[in-house]
Amino acid sequence: MPSTPSFRWDLLLKVGGSLGRSTALRPLLQRIALLAHRRRLLVVPGGGAFAELVRDQMSRLRIDEKTAHHMALLAMDQYGLLLSSLSRRSTGVDNLRAAELVAEAGRVPILLTASLIQREPGLERSFRLTSDSIAAFLAGRLRAAHLILLKSVRKPAERIRDRASAEALARRGIVDPLFPEMLPPNTTAWVLCGRRPQDLDRFIPVGPRAAARGRGAGFRNRTVPRSRREGLRGTT
């Protein structure tokens, strides 16, 4: 999985497939595009309805899990192409060098991960490995500062502080079973409700360094109007 050693990703965002059924998907992509002006970010798509179709066919036709999992990876690519088609500021890419060039231009690279993951022999080929753990795996490989899982959750923004909290989320079915062991120790992880795009405002850099797209600056909670603070209470 080659990548430029000096390139530093600020944010890796996983856009959950369930958000494909939400009217908030386009506003979410618009918010991500605004954030891309200030941060180097990479989007990993979920599987959405495309992966659900694979699961249905696996059950109906008794497809073996290894084959079905490969099909599900391709389903993630389909959802990624869908996401890129909904925003003029987004581009679907199938390699990390292309992703870097898109990010450097202040645009949103949406990584089509199927070919990359298929070339990783150490990864499990089962439905325990979903887009959650794939995003965590990539965050570790790319040394991303922050990993954000955008899902259809009802609770306020939640920071995943350690492996124990990740395991608690896995037991509740919020993340997949392999996510806790895939989560890199030096990446700060969050679960956010993708139906509230304004929750991403907390990752917009502030201060004098923000003028240079926030390169290397730390994340700080940005003061926003009360009407846009929904879902931010009770978090740090």
Structure commentary:
With 236 residues, the protein is of the alpha/beta class. It has one domain: Carbamate kinase (3-Layer(aba) Sandwich), CATH 3.40.1160. The chain has eight helices and seven strands, in the order βαβααβαβααββααβ. It has helices spanning 25-36, 48-61, 65-85, 96-104, 114-118, 131-142, 163-171, 179-182; strands spanning 11-15, 41-45, 90-93, 108-111, 146-151, 158-160, 188-193. The strands form two sheets. It has a five-stranded mixed sheet. Strands 3-4 form a two-stranded parallel sheet. Strand 3, helix 4 and strand 4 (108-111) form a beta-alpha-beta unit. Helix 2 packs antiparallel against helix 3 (65-85). The chain is globular and about 50 Å long. Mean pLDDT is 87; it is low at 208-236.
CATH architecture: 3-Layer(aba) Sandwich
> What is the number of helical segments per DSSP (H or I, 4+ residues)?
8
CATH class: Alpha Beta
Q: What is the total tally of β strands?
A: 7
CATH topology-level name: Carbamate kinase
| Structural shape | globular
Percent helix among the residues?
25-40%
SSE-based structural type: alpha/beta
In total, the number of domains comes to: 1
